[in-house]
Amino acid sequence: MRTARARKPHARSSLVVIVAMLFLWQQTVSPLHSQTANPPPKNVAQLKITVLEGEDGVNVIKAKTAVKPVVEVRDKNNLPVAGAYVTFAAPESGAHVAFAHGSSTYSTVTDSSGRAAVHIMKAVGAGHFKISVTTSFQGQAATTAIAQTNFVTMAAATAAGAGAAAGAGTAAAAGGISATMIGIIAAGVAAGVGTAVAASKSGGGSKTSSSPTGSVGTPGPPQVGPP
């Protein structure tokens, strides 16, 4: 009897220790479980790409004209970002453009005003296509796309303009070129721009994107390039 009674306090002490250990373990695991269930938000890209030239560009293959893209990179405070890495990438087949040395990609860095431009570009194959543009700077990134159309001859571009006009000026002829842009081409031909046209949105209009599906800014008057 004495032995059984002597063991009871020891058993109670062991139970208290076990309960205390379980409590401490629960206090340690709960914060970890909370962090796992609600992970911290990922770093959101703070860069923006504005297309200054090249959107809805019209390239004429035989005239060897092409609307070379120009973009501007800005940060979350809308300040230009100098030294940002920018890559232009065109499709490798079908209607597309080739950059220097026939490459389908061209990489550069932005200047002090946050701008990057393509200097050598050749139209290849007739049709509509898009040039993807990506930029990165100090762990942040952004992307957008520039739509363009290649025509074999100026006559083909003019015919596309007539088709767009016949379609009430709403649908794009030749695979996506805007009716407004086609109208500018036709006006240029009528005014005596004889052999080549390179048209693009610039100056008053631009396209801005901070993600793969960026928003389009207020369009401005397209310009007809030199013959």
Could you explain how this protein is built, in words?
The strands form four sheets. The protein has a five-stranded mixed β-sheet. The protein has a four-stranded antiparallel β-sheet with strand order 7-3-1-12, with no helix packed on it. Mean pLDDT is 75; it is low at 168-175, 186-204 and 212-227. The termini are far apart. It has two domains: 1-40; 48-214, Immunoglobulin-like, CATH 2.60.40. The chain is an alpha+beta fold and 227 residues long. The protein is built from three helices and 13 strands; from the N terminus they run αββββββββββααβββ.
Structure keywords:
single chain, about 230 residues, alpha+beta, Immunoglobulin-like, 2 domains, 5-stranded mixed sheet, 13 strands, about 30% strand, elongated, disordered C terminus
Blueprint of the fold:
Layout: H1 2-37, E1 48-53, E2 57-60, E3 70-74, E4 85-89, E5 96-98, E6 105-109, E7 115-117, E8 122-124, E9 127-137, E10 140-151, H2 154-166, H3 179-190, E11 199-201, E12 207-209, E13 222-224
Parallel strand pairs: 2-10
Antiparallel strand pairs: 1-3, 1-12, 3-7, 4-6, 4-9, 5-8, 9-10, 11-13
Helix pairs in contact: 2-3
In short:
This protein is α+β, with helices and mostly antiparallel strands. It has helices at 2-37, 154-166, 179-190, and strands at 48-53, 57-60, 70-74, 85-89, 96-98, 105-109, 115-117, 122-124, 127-137, 140-151, 199-201, 207-209, 222-224. Helix 2 (154-166) packs across helix 3 (179-190).
Q: What characteristic shape results from the CA principal axes?
A: elongated
Structure annotation, total helices: 3
Order of strands across the widest beta sheet? 2-10-9-4-6
What CATH first level of the largest domain would be assigned?
Mainly Beta
Cα(first) to Cα(last) distance is 115 Å
How many strands? 13
Give the biggest sheet.
5 strands, mixed
Q: Can you tell me the CATH topology of the largest domain?
A: Immunoglobulin-like
- Percent of residues in helices comes to 25-40%
Order of helices and strands: HEEEEEEEEEEHHEEE
Strand content: 25-35%
The radius of gyration over CA amounts to 31 Å
The CATH superfamily of the largest domain is Macroglobulin (MG2) domain
Give the name of the CATH architecture of the largest domain: Sandwich
User: Structural class of the secondary elements?
Assistant: alpha+beta
Uncertain spans, ≥5 residues at pLDDT below 50?
A: 168-175, 186-204, 212-227
